Amino acid sequence: MNRALACLLLLCALTVPLWVDAEESTGFEARFVQERTTPGLERSFRSEGRLIWVAGERLEWRTEQPFEYAYILYPDRIVEREPDGHEREVRSEDAPWVVSLNELLVAVMSGDESAMSDLFSIDSREALDEGERLVLIPRDTMLAEQIPEIRVDKDERIRRVLIEENDGGVLDIRLHDYEGEVLALPEDATDPDS
Amino acid sequence: MRAALLWSLLFLATLTIGLFFLLGEEDWLDSDITHLMPADYQDPVVSRALSRDYLGVSGELMFMVIGPEGESRDAAHAARSALDESGLLAEPRRGSSRELLTQLAPFRFGLVSDDRLAALRVDPASAYLRAVQGRLARPSSAPGLAFAEDPPAYLGDYLSRLPNPYPGLRARDGLWIGEHGDDVLWLIPRELKGEAFDGRIHDPVTSAVASARNEARAHCPDCELLAAGPVLFAAEQRALAQGEIALLSTLSLGGIVLLMLLAFGSLRPLLPGAAALLTGVLTAAAVSLLLFGRLHVITLVAGTTLLGIAIDYVFKYLVHRSEQAGQADGSSVVRSLRRPMMLGVASSLLCLVVLAVSPFPVMRELAVFSGAGLAGAWLTVMLLFPVLDRRGPAVLRPSLSRAVNRPLSLFFGLGRARWLLPLFCLPLGVAAYFAMPDSDDLRAFQAELPERLSMDLRLRSLSGTDFPEGFFIVEGDSADSVLERERALLDTLAAADGPSTIALSHIVPPESRQQEAHALMGEALHDPNLRDELLALGLREEQLRALRSQWADASERWLQPADLAEGPLAPLVENLWLDHPDQPASLVVLRGNLPPDLTGDWPEGVRFIRPVELMNANLSAQRSAAGNWILAAAVLGIPALFILFLGPGMGLRPALAPLCALSLTLAFLWLSGIGLNTFVLMGVILGLGVGADYAAFLGAERRVSPAGVTGIALAALTTLLAFGLLGLSQVPALGQFGLTVVVAIVAAWVSAFTLALPSEPVTQGPGVSA
Fold first, then answer.
1. Most A CBs within 10 Å: which of B72, B94, B121, B141, as the mutation test of the A interface?
2. Percentage of chain B exceeding pLDDT 70
3. Are A82 and B115 an interchain contact pair (Cβ–Cβ within 8 Å)?
């Protein structure tokens, strides 16, 4: 019975689209600290800024330090605002392979577990002092070639995202000072055992 | 006895060859319509273009599960498992991105996306730095090479612009996903391990699709599974053709049996009739298989009508044997029929021989099949019938003979007026032949499969692979000039808001563009301010030096199509690049229709090709040239044979009969609005041969016998029955072929009785009471 209920919940969760209807949008704002370790760079690159998520509309990644830079994901395009103010738009139809990568990003940063379970297989779930850690593996084999694993620490919010890259690089993102609504979903909706 | 032994040898030889192919491992039944076409095109570049599978889909199968999101996903996975378990299908090779990056790394300083190149043109160092900063600040991993090799990730950015094979769909878990109203669609692309037209894989593939459909339904009753691919068309076409062969042969044989019962009131003639037909079909198949190694289904369907002509000789023997009952035995009858039968067979074979030397495989195969079949049936009559016929003849019904001979008085009453027929018909025939419009259409060679076609179109539309008909061919003096002209074409299309394209220059930019990107990047890499910024970000001095050194090394060689002839992009390059040392060319495939106002005015070296139109025009041109020669040979050859066999006095007037029949047939078709095409021409030529056969039988006799007239009537009826049945075929071309022969038989009968009847009146044979 529990198994059947869990399956039902999973199916319900899967029916939640990634980019939900704008009229029902929820969203939040948080501050981030990103530390990128890249083979070839003597030291890690640290940046800080704000993350803004408006469900159904956009995800904004606004870097404030050490330079101003914005990376804004819309359902059909990406807009990059470079440090000198120069704007660059990449439409998903012109760069189809970017779309898949950005889908992963939106799913993880927004904390949308149904979207996550759509795009990742959840390799493991580990309890932390506060919250839990999910180890996610991209379902798409080509993406998995590039990003073998993503670790997500979360309680009711996403707190930390650790992306391991196949060239040995690591992207460590910490989120804090959340403001706004939580995109609430059943806790066990993506339980790999269910 | 010697004759019977000879026949036995013929029968055993053909049977052995037939069994060898039937039981062998090779697939001898061919259903690929392209094998019916002339192999050569006048334009070698077009010829090479059409020989390419320019969309890369001929071996591709696509399956799509559509339904509610959660259930459809399970259904799609279950369907995929069922398909893969068949062992006949494999996931298309997408190639490793790592392998592609390694392959392109030496050329990376010349490969920059359009917007990045535009930014580099304004301020190389600043654009370079912005790209590096973006790479580091972005919350995602940068696609492409390691930071030290390509700090701004230009190559990854460039490759991320490679065209999506299924626009609108996203890769997900080894499948492709998209939205369709409230439902979700899952695309499962697969490659066939084998040839789409190999009949041995048709049943297993059909079973695998049925199994996938069942699995999908078991997981999601509300889901539907669509399937598309050439192999599914080929399997359905072949099953249809095999069904038609069985139906037409059964109906044709049934008609022949009924006609025998009607004519002789006995089943006794069935044994010699069956022997002649069986030997005819076996000889036809054996000779065709020996010459071609295979038989096309179109040949086989059309060839089943051979039964209707092969039985002619049987009826002619039987009615003459009945007429001479008590006066002559079977051997004497055969001897008396030798001359007219030889003339008839020689005329038919002449027509078939001229068909056999045409450039059309379909004509060659049908001519060889029919010619060998007729020869087999004729030899059976000449060699075996006297042996089988020792118990005495079957007697022809007098009432039938009287009825068939009744119109003769009308023809005898024509007198000199009979000459009006050639005077009127021959010029009309010539006019009709040259005035008839061309109606060659490759699509008429196949049965229409509306349901399969509708599913195919729907799936292709949903998966973004509904490429419009037609593509561009771009030619130039060198690979670089071809790519330059491609770029000019893409600019023209972009300026007119035209459709997106699949083009090689998206992947391999022209040399001038690579050189420009390389120069701008060099300017950036040697800029002192950029150096300081990069070092401040953490790049080591020695890494920057290595980068500059690699940039310098890359200034001698630019990416060429040949560099991608192996590796992940090889299939795409193979399909788009028409490599030739003297005449390089490429294909540009459209992903949507051209705007109506954008036609004709293309950049230099660019042509828009519509393959079906082109193939039909080519078919018409070659058919027209071949038709002239075939008709000329037949028109001159048949009178020559008549004069050779019957002498100038007796032969000339009957020789006009088949020519009049030919003219009447062409005139009828012309006035009915039917155009001239390959199958109509084949029907005309076959009708000409049959008409010559009738004229030969009437013209070879000094006095008309009721048996001879009845024999021709029965022969005409069986031929009409056989070819009339072709009208039931779902292949439009075969229907036209059948109609043409039916018209030609009626015209041949009228012409033969008008022109080939001896001047002396009818005499009564002992076996027949008129």
1. B141
2. 93
3. no
**How far off is chain A from B546, nearest CA to CA, in Å?**
12
Pairing mode of beta strands B501-502, B175-180:
unpaired
More confident call, A111 vs B207: B207
> Considering its fold, how many domains does chain B have in total?
3
Which runs of E-coded beta strand occur in B16-74?
A: 29-30, 60-67
Stated pTM of the model: 0.72
B644 and B525 inside one domain: no
- Is residue B254 exposed (0-12), middle (13-18) or buried (19+ Cβ within 10 Å)? exposed
Query: Domain locations in chain A?
Result: 2-190
**Nearest partner of B643 among B692, B691, B688, B685, judged by Cα:** B692
Average pLDDT over residues B166-179: 81
Q: Which of A14, A45, A165 is facing B537, going by the closest CB pair?
A: A45
B392, B525: one domain: no
Residues B619 and B676 in one domain: yes
Measured between beta carbons, which residues in chain B are less than 8 angstroms from residue A64?
none
Q: What are the two backbone dihedrals, phi and then psi, of residue A182, each rounded to the nearest 5 degrees?
A: -100, 140
Contact indicator for B474, B488 with CB cutoff of 8 Å:
no
How many Cβ pairs within 8 Å bridge chains A and B?
130
Q: Does pLDDT of A186 surpass 50? A: no
Residue B83, domain CATH: 3.30.70.260
Q: What is the extent of the structural domain holding B141?
A: 96-172+513-532
Name residues whose C-beta falls within 8 Å of residue B340's C-beta, 6 or more positions apart in sequence: B696, B697, B699, B700, B701
DSSP assignments along A139-182, one per residue: SSHHHHHH--EEEEEESSSEEEEEEE-TTS-EEEEEEEEEEE--
- What digits encode the pLDDT tens for the residues B386-395? 888 777 777 8
Find which of A23-27, B149-153, B311-315, B386-390 is predicted with most confidence, using mean pLDDT: B149-153
Amino acid at position B419, single letter: W
Is there a domain that residue B648 lies in? yes
Q: Does domain A2-190 have CATH number 2.50.20.10?
A: yes
